[in-house]
Specification:
The complex is a heterodimer of chains A (503) and B (334).
Chain A: E1 4-15, E2 18-29, E3 33-38, H1 44-52, E4 59-64, E5 67-71, E6 82-85, H2 97-103, H3 115-128, H4 144-157, E7 162-166, H5 174-189, E8 193-198, H6 201-207, E9 210-215, E10 218-223, H7 230-241, E11 257-265, E12 270-277, E13 281-286, H8 292-299, E14 307-312, E15 315-316, E16 330-333, H9 337-340, H10 348-352, H11 356-359, H12 367-381, H13 395-409, E17 413-417, H14 425-440, E18 444-449, E19 461-466, E20 469-475, H15 479-489
Parallel strand pairs in A: 3-8, 3-9, 6-7, 7-8, 13-18, 13-19, 16-17, 17-18
Antiparallel strand pairs in A: 1-2, 1-4, 4-5, 9-10, 11-12, 11-14, 14-15, 19-20
Helix pairs in contact in A: 2-3, 2-4, 12-13, 13-14
Chain B: H1 2-13, H2 17-37, H3 44-69, H4 77-93, H5 98-122, H6 127-144, H7 159-167, E1 169-170, E2 173-174, H8 175-193, H9 195-205, H10 207-212, H11 217-243, H12 254-264, H13 276-295, H14 300-323
Antiparallel strand pairs in B: 1-2
Helix pairs in contact in B: 2-13, 3-8, 3-11, 3-12, 3-13, 4-5, 4-6, 4-11, 4-12, 5-6, 5-11, 7-11, 8-9, 9-11, 12-13, 13-14
The chains are: A alpha/beta (503), B mainly alpha (334).
């Protein structure tokens, strides 16, 4: 008989009069990897919070390890034996791996710390996974992949029963993802249960024993392995692929180079040369996730190459004239821009014109100019343009703000760091539309990403970087080869672990 | 040989050692320059005095480092020093046995540490405000304890007390220096080798992760403030032994010296980083500058300006070491 680890029964959660979870039902067995594909992220965070901690709920019951731990009558606020692995690490960066795993543990009784003993204990677990992480290494020196592996080991050693893995494909490379998935499978066979949360069903199909589709705080369908195919998914994702809005203009024949890297060396770059054409959308896919931050730092002029040259419109990018990247015509959109690129204390309009006032020579923007901006952008943005309280706006409207701000500023190139990170299906579709809007205006768009997934729908070119070098370049007509490559990566995991390249 | 190499590698790899080494290399030319300016700087007597001058700064630096590593700050250090000096001196002038006076002083100072820890970790007051409050309270106690007067001389009855804390020598070194060494060894051991030490680093680095890992945030924060109060109390007793009386303005601005010693030595003001070896170097730089500039005939104002500049430069160095580069470095040609 299967042993049940988690059961959510008629779970209903309401916050600020918003129904986040609506009669939500889910059960997970011991040793099972349950996929949770969220078509939109409505209620997702609330669900994770309820699984991790027994917070008050509106209706329903939560059973953990066959015990009723939370119901609508009484919530103890205690924490369940659940670990959450996501981009934001739960590790203490200034301590070593063994300190995080062994010392920062409830019930660690020893007062004096013997690093040697702890490291030898850690190596037993590391050997099991064929890992070459040094237990005495500080967390801040680890790669994102190594950090999540340490978090996984921490969870196992701390004796958690259920591990939530959230959106890991957004920040680790495809090769690392495959390796991490093999670790998940290894531990699931040892009786640990997992909830694998992601936005792409293809990703979940590779690893999960069952996949639940969630939308608007409700489970739409639970798919069994024999239903893991695109045909089963089609009714739920049809809207996403109906890409009438996306207009991939093909008239790229007369394009000229606008940005070029010539033999650029930095700490992570190893002699990279490439040219980006004017008006195109290029995708930089970093297989190891090492160079993307370097590109952002180089282009924002926080850093300069150790060797090599970067030219923008044929001129040295680091000449002393015009020190600001924006004045040189470079715009940036950060990962999760609604968190990092919006001034929530200012109005929508002030946010929208924020970059314009850096471009014009006047001390303040005249009312006339503001009026004309409203006139121009109201058809795109709608009535939200008059909004003063940004926290009440939808993610769609906030993304509009971030992208149309650059649309208005009209830089030569826009760099988008992981544009689809943490976005649900509908939001991803909207982001694709916004990227296309920038392209339509003649702005060159460069998407920096660690997974191809949605980027191909707007890309004109894909540059693949591996270990600090440009490995391959694909033009639009060669994208079918990329799809084949993607399928190869998505093929079932070899049970034997892939040796680590890190150390 | 290999083991030796590994040992050196391990030492260099220790987090925070980079800045300690950099600052230590800064200390050497500083000593050479002052030695050239005035050869007395290197005399045996001056070195003895210099070490005795550095010791109190090192002790309060240790306390401040503990608090800074937890991501907080203790502004009450100077006032607790003053309070310790005044309470112990008043008790001794009233004929109380020095040992009893020390115990009573210690209990009073540790109470301030507990109050600081409670205000910051349980009442969630910003550490700057909480310790600013206790700073004023402690200074008030220092003033009120002898009715707003400095005390008389603690007298010949406290000769042993004065020798133990300041005038006596053991194996050729002043006792003040030995006290500083003992305190450093104990607190360095606690910080680097025990669970409490790991918890102190953990809450300074990532308080949320520490909570999730079962670290008792309020207990750990209070422990750090207790260490700070203990160190301040010791320095207060040293000052009392030095002057042989209690002065109400004892320990004025010492909180700033403590921050300077910690920050110069590489303790991050953001928490989670720093080692006590750095505090030794930080306190030494402070002492060498004070002593050397005094020999060079520089007025107090100039000494303060120089120390201020050194603090700013060391924080800048910290940033450079962490990011690995200057922000506006010249482009090197291929």
């Amino acid at each position: 008989m299967k042993e049940e680890i988690l059961r959510l029964e008629n779970l209903t959660q309401v916050k600020d009069e918003v129904l986040l979870l609506d009669n939500f039902n889910l059960h997970i067995f011991k040793g099972e990897i349950m996929g949770l594909v969220c078509l939109n992220d409505h209620g997702r965070n609330s669900l994770m919070e309820i699984i991790c901690q027994n917070v008050p709920i509106h209706f329903g019951r939560v059973y953990f390890n066959d015990q009723l731990v939370n119901d609508y009558i009484h919530s103890s606020m205690s924490r369940n034996k659940v670990a959450l692995i996501e981009k934001q690490s739960k590790l203490v960066e200034d301590l070593t791996v063994v300190d995080n795993i062994f010392v920062l543990r409830r019930g660690f009784k020893k007062y004096l710390i013997n690093k040697k003993v702890l490291n030898s204990q850690f190596q037993i677990f590391a050997k099991e996974l064929e890992l070459s992480i040094d237990g005495k290494e500080y967390i801040c020196n680890l790669s994102p992949f190594e950090k999540i592996v340490v978090e996984l080991l921490q969870a196992i050693i701390h004796g958690v029963k259920l591990i939530l893995v959230k959106d890991i494909s957004n920040f680790i490379s495809a090769a690392d993802l495959k390796r991490f998935q093999s670790f998940i499978q290894y531990y699931s066979k040892q009786g640990y249960s997992f909830i694998y949360i992601c936005n792409h069903h293809e990703e979940a199909f590779q690893i999960c024993s069952r996949v639940s589709l969630m939308e608007n705080g409700k489970i739409l369908k639970v798919l069994n392995p024999n239903e893991f195919n695109d045909a089963m998914m089609a009714p739920y994702i049809a809207e996403f692929y109906n890409n009438n809005l996306i207009n991939n203009s093909e008239n790229n024949s007369k394009k000229q180079g606008i940005l070029s890297f010539e033999q650029v060396y930095t700490k992570n770059f190893r002699g990279i040369s490439f040219t980006v054409q004017k008006g195109e959308c290029s995708v930089i896919l970093d297989v190891n996730n090492t160079v993307l931050t370097d590109i952002m730092e180089l282009m924002s002029r926080e850093k300069q190459p150790d060797f090599g040259k970067i030219t923008l419109d044929g001129k040295d990018y680091y000449n002393r004239k015009n020190k600001s990247a924006l004045k040189k015509g470079i715009g940036f959109i950060n990962e999760q821009p609604t968190k990092s690129m919006i001034f929530y204390n200012s109005s929508y309009l002030d946010n929208l014109i924020f970059l314009v006032d850096q471009k014009i020579s006047h001390i303040r923007i005249s009312k006339k100019l503001k009026k004309s901006i409203i006139q121009e952008y109201e058809p795109y943005i709608g009535k939200d343009i008059y909004e003063t309280k940004l926290s009440s706006l939808s993610p769609f409207s906030l993304y509009n703000l971030v992208y149309y701000r650059l649309h208005l500023c009209n830089p030569k190139i826009v760099f988008c760091m992981q544009p689809f990170y943490n976005a649900d299906m509908y939001l991803r579709k909207h982001i694709l539309f916004l990227i296309n809007e920038l392209k339509q205006k003649g702005i060159t768009v460069i998407l920096l990403t660690v997974s191809l997934e949605d980027s191909l729908m707007v890309a004109d070119r894909v540059l693949i970087f591996e270990e600090g070098r440009l490995r391959k370049e694909y033009l639009k007509k060669e994208f079918s080869k990329l799809e084949q490559m993607k399928n190869q990566i998505n093929s079932p995991i070899n049970p034997k672990f892939i040796p680590l390249r890190y150390k | 040989m290999d083991n030796k190499d590994n040992f050196i590698k391990r030492i260099v790899k220790t987090r925070g050692m980079g800045q300690v080494i950099t600052v230590a290399f800064g200390l050497i030319p500083l000593c050479i320059v002052f030695g050239i300016l005035n050869p007395i700087f290197f005399s045996g007597q001056n070195i003895g005095n210099l070490l005795r001058q550095i010791a109190p700064i090192l002790i309060i630096g240790i306390g401040q480092s503990y608090v800074l590593i937890t991501g907080n700050i203790d502004l009450s250090i100077g006032s607790v020093v003053g309070m310790s000096c005044m309470i112990s001196a008043t008790l001794m002038t009233k004929g109380v046995n020095p040992l009893t006076a020390i115990i009573i002083t210690l209990i009073t100072c540790l109470t301030i540490g507990i109050i600081n820890g409670t205000l910051v970790s349980i009442c969630k007051l910003p550490p700057f405000i909480a310790t600013l409050g206790t700073m004023t309270i402690a200074r008030g106690i220092a003033q009120i304890v002898n009715n707003n007067y400095n005390t008389d001389s603690i007298g010949e009855g406290a000769r042993g007390f004065r020798d133990f804390f300041y005038y006596g020598k053991t194996i050729g070194l002043y006792n003040t220096v030995w006290i500083a060494i003992a305190i450093w060894v104990v607190f360095n051991f606690i910080l680097s080798k025990t669970r409490t030490g790991r918890h102190i680093y953990a809450i300074g680095s990532n308080i949320e992760a520490s909570k999730l890992s079962g670290v008792n945030i309020s207990a750990t924060t209070t422990k750090a403030y207790l260490v700070s109060s203990f160190c301040s109390c010791t320095v207060g007793l040293i000052i009392c032994a030095t002057s042989g009386m209690g002065t109400m303005d004892a320990g004025n601005s010492y909180e700033m010296y403590a921050v300077a010693a910690s920050v110069i030595g590489g303790v991050s003001t953001l928490g989670g980083q720093g080692i006590l070896l750095g505090t030794i170097i930080g306190a030494s730089i402070w002492g060498v500058l004070q002593n050397g500039l005094q020999f060079a005939g520089a007025p107090v104002a100039i000494r303060n300006i120089v120390i201020g500049i050194i603090v700013v430069v060391s924080v800048l160095l910290d940033v450079v070491i962490r990011t690995g580069t200057f922000r506006f470095r010249k482009l090197s040609k291929p």
